[in-house]
Fold these 2 entries.
Entry 1:
Amino acid sequence: MRRPTRRYSILSLLKEARHGHSGWVEAWRKAEPRSSYDVVIVGAGGHGIATAYYLAKLHGIHNVAVLEKGWLGGGNTARNTGIIRSNYLRRESMALYGLSHSLFEHLSQELDFNVMFTPRGLVELAHTRQELAELSRIADANRHFGIKSWMIPTSEVHSLLPSLDQGSHKRFPLLGALYQPRGGFARHDAVAWAYARMASQLGVDIVENCGVESIIADGERIVGVQTSRGRIDAGTIMVAAAGESPPLLAPLGVNLPIEPVTLQAFVSEPLKPFLNPVVMSGAVHGYISQTAKGELVIGGGTDAYPSHSRRGAWPPIEDTVAAMLELFPFLSRVRLMRHWGGSVDITPDRSPLIGPAGPSGLYVNCGWGTGGFKAIPGSGFVTASMLATGKVPPIAVPFGLERFAAGRMIDESAASGVIH
Ligand SMILES: Cc1cc2nc3c(=O)[nH]c(=O)nc-3n(C[C@H](O)[C@H](O)[C@H](O)COP(=O)(O)OP(=O)(O)OC[C@H]3O[C@@H](n4cnc5c(N)ncnc54)[C@H](O)[C@@H]3O)c2cc1C
């Protein structure tokens, strides 16, 4: 099934330029939907597409369609700020995000595509005693679980971040930081493209502009989906449609506890390199990194009300800019070049939903909120195994929907939110 990968040299790039760029091979096939598949995945975001790749690659299930109502990665996957880390508070989260982080280390080689994984380190600043205590608690949990992340004193923060304002007048004085040296970022859309290209080569159909309107059940079993391009039958269906998952499951009597909220991000004009690690601060409420090109990638808190809109309100923009100036006052005259929003799918405990839902054969992978980009390889790996075997792998069991009824929340509100 696998098509040969075409490689390009500088010479072939120049030749293509001379011929008006007419000879490029499509990265993934523009598939037409067929009437039935073994597995249908709803949503070609990172989680849907990675699951399809691992299904084909590791489990030999190639008769798979990923149905996307818009374009590949057009949801949150290509709208995020690309931050990758695994220093969460709960052991369930550390296991899942830790697996994902380790897969990111070799993802470019695995997918034969440069996803620009850049582990320059990640520093979460503590500005209050309470924050210091909270981050120290996370560092302790990380140490017990074997996640390489620890507290560093202010002197070390300043040597990692010489441009951070050190003034004694500060409203938010620096008390220390949680540091993960292998934290960093990757290029978000490259991750989606890389998985899509490989999945397509392995025979997966990626069908864009094909919205799923409803999920069809026959008694207690799932049998297919009704789409904007007709009915498609499948015995196994996974919904990975982020904040748009709940309305697809509600008619089947499954209520997903997900609230959609707008989250915005910003990119500045390029500057000379001054910022090596990613810097995050819960108290000032913002985070910042600098790309290889020199642009600053900046984010902050979510908008204050539920919304499916991808256009955010003004106050979070002002708050985020103020937060950055609190940390780096010399940025005051830097211009922001771009700004955008995504609608993130927040659960009550800030942890994702992975597992069976409702009629037999139906699964969900959603609720990733503000921090699901970093989880794409790990979640895809785990959910592919779940779909292939019908058994939920131990690492995913705690993330099942039943945790809310049973009161077994995986509360990550201290280690997520603005700390993506
Ligand atoms: C501004 C911003 C910054 C962020 N920063 C970070 C970060 O730094 N690090 C991090 O780890 N995470 C970050 N995130 C969160 C991260 O982007 C998401 O958690 C992650 O992308 C979720 O991936 P997904 O595949 O679940 O959803 P999505 O990428 O949203 O994919 C869902 C797909 O389903 C499709 N869909 C919806 N309904 C239907 C339907 N009925 N039929 C067919 N298709 C449908 C949508 O069009 C979409 O393409 C950020 C998010 C935003 C918005």
Entry 2:
Amino acid sequence: MENKWIVGVDIGGTTSKMAFITPKGDIVSKWQIPTDHRNHGGNIPEQLKYEIEKKCSELGAENTCLMGIGVGAPGSVNAVTGIVREATNLSWKSAYPLKKNLEATTGLPVAIDNDANCAALGEMWKGSGQGARNLVLVTLGTGIGSGIVINGHIVHGAGGAAGEIGHLASNTKDGYLCKCGKHGCLETIASATGIVRAALAIANDHSDGGLSFFYKQNGTITAKNVFDFAERGDHQAKSVVDYALEHLGIALANVANTLNPEKIVIGGGVSKAGQYLLTRLNHYYQQHLFPTVKETTEIKLASLGNDAGVLGAAWIADQLT
Ligand SMILES: [Zn+2]
């Protein structure tokens, strides 16, 4: 086979995403599989091998057309040793040698990195980064993660924990307990979890207003509901959104003033709130920027959705060759 492909894998707690990708970043085929938790996650290399061979056969391609595998994994990932730690959503025990085991199982070269880092590289390569060599991807989901790319390379930090933007200190006086053990981290305020908690507090305290009424009707509120109500002018929802986005805007301005990247790209489930989120976030973000940074660091919404992780994973695997 003349064409050579890279396998991009984005391992998640429930589903893993896979794709065959050309060295130019075109997706040949992509699919999802339920992540195999049996044998404390020890089946994952065999599962990936099976899936890769099955897809090759479906496409009428030889396994020899594959150049390597790139994997984005949750938790603390040492890109050099290929060991994953603290992947709390997976069944791997304290430290799992993913690179070594996957290379032994498949016979292909393997590159791994943290999933948020891979998503940042994916957006840099084929998404909203549009080739920017300096970029920060911030994912707003149940938590807040980020990947920092400087001069085209991920910043890992001394312990692999660079980019923990979700744990920037935001409310140091009376903030909520974060899952990291500190109080008042940014993600206790501006993640979907933080937004829903603030919305529930208001809905429980008030008998009037759209948000309160919706909660009484449905017994639940999502971050998307809160943004929808805010966009329609509901005062309670607006106060929740503005509180979250003021803290996020200040944090991102601090990041921008520190790194002056070309772009800060906002991804993750909460980013589906789209232009409304971007406008309100920019309102707070712009107020805290150093003048030169204001002219050169722009906030954009991510554009690749679920494909960012597999594309970034393929990008790191391509660097092996
Ligand atoms: Zn924290």
